[in-house]
Amino acid sequence: MRFGVRTKLRKLLRRGQSKRLRARRFLNKGISVDQFLSQLTAEGTRYAVLRWFESLPEVEPGEDIDLLVADDDLARVEPLLSLSPADASCQKVDLYSESGIRGTSFRKVPYFSQELASKILDDAVLLHGRYKIPSPADHFDSLAFHAVYHKGEASGLPRKTDEPVPPAIAEHRYLETLCRLLPHATGPVELSLEGLDRYLSEKGLRPRADTLDRYQTGNAWLKEQQAASRQDIGALEGLIVFSVREAALDHVPEIERVINRHGLEILRVIPLSGQQQQRVRRAVRGGNWGRGPFPKSGGDPATLIIAYDYARSNRPMPDGQLINRRAIKAKYEVRDLIHARLPRGEWFNPMHSADNGCHSLECLEALDDPSCIPALKTQIERIDRQLDAPWPEIQELRKGRRSRTVIVDHPVHGRAVVKLFRPGAKRFLEREIMARQELSGVPLIPRLLDHADNWFLSPLYADTRQHVRRVLRGTSELQLTYPTARAVAAFVQELRKRNLFLLDLTSHNLITDAEAGLLILDLEFLQRYREMPLLEHDYTVRGEALEDDVDVPVITRDKRRSQFAKSIFHPAITGLSIRDLSRPNPSIFGPMKAAAVQAWWHGTSMWRLFALRFGGLRPGSSVVRPVAGSNVRKQNGPATRQSSPQIMRTDRLWIPRESTIAAGARSRPWTAPINSSVLGDGPVSIPER
Predict the structure, then answer these.
(1) Fewer Cβ close by (within 10 Å): the C or N end of the chain?
(2) In sequence order, what DSSP letters do the residues of 430-479 get, joined into one string?
(3) Is 301 strand, coil or helix?
(4) What's the burial of 16, exposed, middle or buried (CB within 10 Å: 0-12/13-18/19+)?
(5) Range list of β-strands (E), 381-440
(6) Of the candidates 218, 49, 24, which has an alpha carbon nearest to the alpha carbon of residue 103?
(7) Which tens digits make up the pLDDT trace of 477-524?
(8) Minimum mean pLDDT among 1-15, 168-182, 266-280, 387-401: which range?
(9) Contact 133, 149 (CB under 8 A)
(10) Which of 423, 358, 357, 413 is CA-nearest to residue 386?
(11) Residues carrying CATH 3.30.200.20, the chain
(12) Per-residue confidence at 226, pLDDT binned at 50, 70, 90?
């Protein structure tokens, strides 16, 4: 438990540090406002005090100084500031950089549009001959920008000119100041939120949609405007553009595989020319391509990977943003994949992903290629047609990363289930067809009625749930009856005879039909061994594979949080180990023992989940815990089993005493040396991975 406490403390410390990397700063002790600004001016620093500067160097108690600084001059400013105040007398300063460098941004994007920030810094004038402030025209534009996109109705401005001014809720007199500066505006303008938004848009100062989506958090008016202005772009909403940065160019093939694995169909890969690179840089992320929270910068965008998510969700997030969650998960997996090969000091952000289809279109428009978007639209329409069933559809059962499952009215077989696969998932279709053809005599395999290039047809089964003992308390996992567990164990042995394994075999993939009996529905991850491990380390049993080139399911959040989700042979699910369930002459006490173990897990699962949540252990982790009498030592990470007459436990499964742990096995403390002599009648014709 002490390990868990230390882990929690480290996380809290890191969280506290990340929260401190914000725009709020404080003048160092002993430095006055006059000394601070005068020194910046004397050194030629490109900066500007943005607003409420009329009384400088005096600042009203409790107020802050909003400071915009050029990126190249941050090194001059930051030594004069600190992240926390030395005492209550230290003046507050909100520090914003020109391009939104980490710790000087607003909601992780630049404070102003790039054009406005550059103009403010270039045209700054002196107040009292000592302090740099925006020119009157830039003062109007920047204050209008701040009121509309940062504050919204909290600025005290009406939504429209014909609406009454809202109650006095603003901290400052925005409307009065804008009225005073109105003669310096460079065109006709209405002093309302909508009027100022139109004015800034006409001047080319309005941020792009991806930046506005960040600004809308905490701005109810802008949130409503973004929702109302969001166009219905149809299937193009599933379009996602990944911008691979210069430092990650060598990893593009791996990045493509990760994106495809998360259910996004890759349409095109476009290396950027010099001019395209600069246009995309300005159009995406608000122009902020800094290093972010990493020690090094990944550089500018260098290659675009254009993908399509046919199974997208169009439900906005609570803050109003429309975000493709699969794209975000793919981006994080790419980041983890690259960082795993680098020392921490070399980490960088390898790529950016658009949040949704509208943001992707903005990025593609920056390419200045009129033929690009129409060609992509044609590709998307072709994919959608391939995912339409060839018979009348009755009900859609599921729309996943690789396939779409639909109940159809077939002219010969009546009501049946068709599973349609997207083009990039063809190998999963081939495995489903192969399993139903070559394993047709094996129990638990569903019938194959028909198949084609992108679909197969199966009977429509009704689940009686006779295989379910109960739902494991505190989880969504199903505890299985003893006969069911024995039948699944026999199925594993049949696979081993054919040199096969099946990942993603969980209790949720089982059904019991009144006529066909117990069946396994999902066979997409049926694959062939290169060398077969011992039974206890069988990939089907573990739910994990040692080989790097194996197709593995995407681990969802629910599976990460559940220690039982990966393997159907966890004792909480079946009650007994795979070895006990596979005995040809089982003990008469087997059903009682299985029921007792399942009941124990059912009764204590809430306490175990509480310990996993607050005790520092990660669900499904491979931390090895020796039982009394075992001899275990660690070698810079994975535990190494020497020899022991006892058993060893992991957080996920029990390992019988005859198991041997391979020294130095990479992140697989339970992995046995692969033994090619164990069971097997030779491989069958399964598609290559």
Answers:
(1) N
(2) HHHHHHHHHTTTSTTPPP--EE-SSEEEEE------TTEEEEPTTSS-EE
(3) strand
(4) exposed
(5) 393-399, 403-410, 414-421
(6) 24
(7) 899 999 999 999 999 999 999 999 999 899 999 999 999 999 999 999
(8) 1-15
(9) no
(10) 423
(11) 387-459
(12) confident
pLDDT tens digits, one per residue of 200-225: 999 989 988 888 888 988 888 998 88
pLDDT band at 668 (very low <50, low <70, confident <90, very high): very low
From the list 328, 124, 111, 151, the residue with the least C-alpha distance to 240 is 328
**Nearest residue to 392 (alpha-carbon basis) of 380, 378, 408, 376:** 408
Which range is least confidently modeled, 127-131, 316-320, 588-592, 633-637? 633-637
Q: What is the CA radius of gyration of the chain?
A: 31
Residue corresponding to tokens 């639909």: 406
Secondary-structure class of domain 19-227 per CATH: alpha beta
For Cα atoms 11, 14, 18, give the angle at the middle one, nearest 5 degrees: 135
The residue among 492 and 668 whose pLDDT is bigger is 492
**Across-strand partners of 480?**
468
Q: 200 or 554, which is more confident? A: 200
Residue 106 in 3-state DSSP? strand
**HSE value, Cβ hemisphere, 13 Å, CA-based, for 215:** 26
Task: Evaluate the omega torsion of the peptide bond into residue 619 and state whether it is cis, within 30 degrees of 0.
Answer: no
The greatest distance separating any two alpha carbons of the chain, rounded to the nearest whole angstrom, comes to 97
Provide the 10 A C-beta neighbour count for residue 22: 15
Q: Is the pLDDT of residue 64 over 60?
A: yes
Q: Which residues contact 454 (CB under 8 A, 6 or more apart)?
A: 386, 420, 421, 422, 423, 426, 429
CA distances in angstroms from 661 to 137, 569, 657, 676, listed in the order given: 72, 19, 11, 17
227 token code pair: 């929702």
Cα(535)–Cα(677) distance, rounded to whole angstroms?
12
Please name the helix (run of DSSP H) or strand (run of DSSP E) that holds residue 97, with its range, or none.
strand 92-97
In the chain, where does the domain assigned CATH 3.30.70 lie? Answer: 234-384
| Of 589, 478, 479, nearest in space to 580 by CA | 589
pTM for the complete prediction?
0.76
**Domain formed by 234-384, architecture:** 2-Layer Sandwich (3.30)
Angle at 608 between CA 607 and CA 611, to 5 degrees: 90
Task: Give the span between the Cα atoms of 132 and 127, in whole angstroms.
Answer: 6
- The alpha carbon torsion through 328, 333, 334, 335 (nearest 10 deg) reads 90
Give me the phi and psi of 480, to 5 degrees please.
-100, 155
Write down the CATH superfamily of domain 387-459. Phosphorylase Kinase; domain 1 (3.30.200.20)
Nearest residue to 408 (alpha-carbon basis) of 397, 400, 399 = 397
The dihedrals phi and psi of 245, each to the nearest 5 degrees, come to -85, 165
How far is Cα 267 from Cα 378, in angstroms, rounded to an integer? 11
What is the torsional sign of CA 565, 570, 572, 578? Answer: positive
Domain with CATH 3.30.460 in the chain: 19-227
